[in-house]
Amino acid sequence: MDTTATLFLPPGGSTIAGEVDALFYFLVYASIVMFGIVLAGMIFFGLRYRHRQGDAAAPTAGISHNTKLELTWSIIPTILVVIVFFWGFNVYLKMNVVPKDAMEIKVTGQKWFWTFDYPEGANTVNELVIPAGKPVKLLMSSKDVIHSFFVPDFRVKMDVLPNRYTIVWFEAKREGTHNLFCTEFCGTGHSSMIGTVRVVPEREYAEWLETASNVGSDLAPEQYGERLFVSKACVTCHSLEGKSVVGPPLNGVFGKPVALTSGGTVIIDENYIRESILEPQASVVAGYQPVMPTYQGILKDREIDALVAYIKSLQ
Ligand SMILES: [Cu+2]
Fold first, then answer.
1. Are the C-beta atoms of residues 164 and 146 closer than 8 Å to each other?
2. pTM to 2 decimals?
């Protein structure tokens, strides 16, 4: 249960990490020892019994087998394999049987970000906030292709599929932040499908949850929109410096005309931005792929208003 990084693995941040690591290192070192024995034997026999000038041809009669040797090289590996099976099965069960008192968070993967829905109505994008010392169950699904939820520090990895739920659970040991990756190649934006898991003390979590459901009420719409633009992952696809990334840049576009793939032209106004957020496929900007995800059900009206105000302010 160490918390420092080891030769092959990052610091362990969950209660299961120590057990996964122990099994992993057992496998690594057992393989190295076996490899050493086989290689040393090969080199030794190669040198000891190499062909020399004047040697008679090798005798072929009278050599059948060596029972002791054969039993040894069968029984030792069998014992090792059986140990690894039962050990692995034990850890597997612990990782797969969710404790009854686990709190549940809904995870949605889509091109190319993660959404987390908490029981009390709060939601976050690309940042999972959980209490320390409490088991957390993630109920996961995808809106489009196969993604995979991976938190190396927790030693958990689980595919996130369309049309099906998958489950993963863990208990973070103490407060801190951990990297979250999508580890299934899911298209051109795959490398930006990253996030963090922020572990906070249990008391702080309750407070966070309360404020998370009504953040921004104290901010001016443009400022709130600026935050949402980052926290809801718009930045992964939209530049504010006039560069074209996955999507078109959004600075200085308000009030200007834009050409659509369908042939027509529209003026970028409040309604067009709103439609772009909720029904991105309704009018697709010429020269771009229709890959913007819908934010229907993710953004509340107040948040859409703030984003519109923010984009408007970017002149
Ligand atoms: Cu992905």
1. no
2. 0.70
